[in-house]
Amino acid sequence: MNDIKPEHPRAESLQTRKKLADGFKKGLVTPEGLSAHGRGEAFDYILGEKTTKQAKKAIRAGAAELLLAEKPVFSVNGNVAALVPEEISELSKKTNIEIEVNLFHRSKEREEKIASHLKDHGLDKVLGTEEKHSSEISEIESNRRIVDERGIKAADTVFVPLEDGDRTKNLVSLGKKVITIDLNPMSRTAKSADITITNNIVRAMPLFIKELEKLKESSQEKLSKITKNFDNEQNLRKMLKLMLKRLENLSHR
Amino acid sequence: MNDIKPEHPRAESLQTRKKLADGFKKGLVTPEGLSAHGRGEAFDYILGEKTTKQAKKAIRAGAAELLLAEKPVFSVNGNVAALVPEEISELSKKTNIEIEVNLFHRSKEREEKIASHLKDHGLDKVLGTEEKHSSEISEIESNRRIVDERGIKAADTVFVPLEDGDRTKNLVSLGKKVITIDLNPMSRTAKSADITITNNIVRAMPLFIKELEKLKESSQEKLSKITKNFDNEQNLRKMLKLMLKRLENLSHR
C-alpha cells in the first residue's frame, strides 16, 4: 500500500492503517493491536471520520485537566506510539508531563523498541523501561500493573489513550484523574474515565496540543471551571445519539 | 489463543480471528487485512453476530445470479483465502465458477501462497497467478486492475467478497454483475454491488453453497425472478435500521 491515492475518499483512514501496519512490521504493534484498530475504524466510520463538537469539548477539558495536574503522565502502548509519535514528543516539550511506556501484551523487547521509536521522533526521556524503577499497582490484574515508580505510580493525572477497560477503572479507583481517547462511547474505558475524547487519536492529538497552547496562560480558576463544567456521562450520551442519528440519516438516503 | 472455550459468549468470533491470525502467520494475510477484519468484527458485533433475514435474502439472490451467469468468477484475497478455503473449493466443484486470486496489496509471493493454500484445501485450478495470462482493466486504479484474462477480465458475473469500494464500482461500470459480502451496509462496496450480503463471510459462505444446491435445478425463469425481485438498496436500508435498533438497545444497557 505504498500508493494510497490522495483522492481516494478514505485516504486518511488508509494512511492511518498503513502507519499502524508499519508499526507492526517494526515490532511496536501486536496483531491484537491491529484488530483493535480495525474496531476503532468502524466506530470512526459511523461517526463520519470527523472531530465532533463533543470531542472538541472533551479535548478542551482534558487539556485543562492536564494543566491543573501536578504530576501528569502520558501512557503509551504500541498503537499510540505507531500513530502519534511526533505529537507525544511535542506534548512532552510543552508541558511537565512524563511519558511512560506501558503495555498490555508486555515484552521487554517491545518496550524498548517503542521507547527508541519515540526517541527517534524527538522525545528525550521515556519512563517504563528500566527494571530498577519498576513498581506494581496491585489492584491491576493484567501485565499493565507493572508501572514506573516515577511515572504512573506517582501520578495524579494519567492520560491513557486506547486503553483497556479494567485498567482505566483501576486507575480511577486509585484516585487518579484519567483522560482517555476512545472511539467507542459505549466501552468500559469510555465510561470509567473522567474525561473521554471520542475521536480518532490522529485527529485528537494535534487539537489537544493546540488547546494546551491556548489555555497555558489561563488562571487555575479558569481551568478548574472548564473541568468542572465538563460532564463525561452527558458527553458520551451525546456522542451515542450522534452515532444513532448518523446511522438514521444514512438509512434514509 | 489455542484454547478458546466453546462456551465463551464470543467463541465463534474468536475462532474466526484465530483463523485470520494463522493466515497471517502463513503469509496469506497482510497487517492491513488484520485491521480490516477488526473493522468487520465491530459491524458484526453491532449486528448481533447473526445471519439476518435480509442476509438470507441476499444469499438467495446471489446464488440465483451465479447460476444464471455464463462466466462467473470468484475473486479471492488474503482474508477470504484464510477464512473460507474449504467453501471456495466446494463452490468450484458445484458450479462452473472460476477461482481467481486478486490482491489489493499485490505480491507474487503472496499470490502463490494463497493459490497453494487453496489447493491444499481441495481446489484444482486457480487463476490469477500466471504472468502469461495477466491482463489489465485500465479503469481500475489500484493493483487490483491486474486480472487474469481467462477470469475476471472475461467474466460476466464476479463474486468479490471483502472488496474495496473503487474496484466494486469499476467492475459494475464495466457491465459485470457484482455479488459481494460486506459487513458494513454503508460502504461504497455494499452500495455499488448488485447484490450485497451483509454478513460475516464465515457464516455466509456455507449458506450460499446450500442455497446453490437448492436452486440448481430451477428454471432460468425462476432464477431470473429471484434476482429481479431482489432490491439491494432496500435490503441495505433494512440492515442499517437493524444496526440502529441494536445500537439503541446496547446504549440502554
Summarize the structure.
The first copy, chain A, is of the alpha/beta class. The first copy, chain A, has helices spanning 11-25, 31-46, 53-68, 78-83, 85-94, 108-120, 165-173, 188-192, 201-215, 220-228, 232-252; strands at residues 72-76, 98-101, 134-136, 146-148, 157-159, 177-181, 195-197.
Order of SSEs of chain A: HHHEHHEHEEEHEHEHHH
Mean pLDDT of chain A: 91
Kindly identify the CATH topology of chain A. Rossmann fold
Largest interface between protein chains, with number of residues from each side: A-B, 32 and 36 residues
Reading side by side through the largest sheet of chain A, how are the strands ordered? 2-1-5-6-7
The percentage helix of chain A is: 40-55%
Tell me what you see in this structure:
Chains A, B: It is an enzyme of class 6 (ligase). The structure is a homodimer of 253-residue chains. By secondary structure, chain A is of the alpha/beta class. The first copy, chain A, has one domain: Rossmann fold (3-Layer(aba) Sandwich), CATH 3.40.50.12640. Helices cover 53% and strands 10% of the residues of chain A. The first copy, chain A, is built from eleven helices and seven strands. Chain A has helices at 11-25, 31-46, 53-68, 78-83, 85-94, 108-120, 165-173, 188-192, 201-215, 220-228, 232-252, and strands at 72-76, 98-101, 134-136, 146-148, 157-159, 177-181, 195-197. In chain A, the strands form two sheets. A five-stranded parallel sheet of chain A has the order 2-1-5-6-7, with helices on both faces. In chain A, strands 3-4 form a two-stranded antiparallel sheet. The longest helix of chain A is centred in the last third of the chain and has 21 residues, at 232-252. Chain A starts with 10 loop residues before the first helix and ends with a helix. At the A-B interface, α1, α2 and α11 of A face α1, α2 and α11 of B.
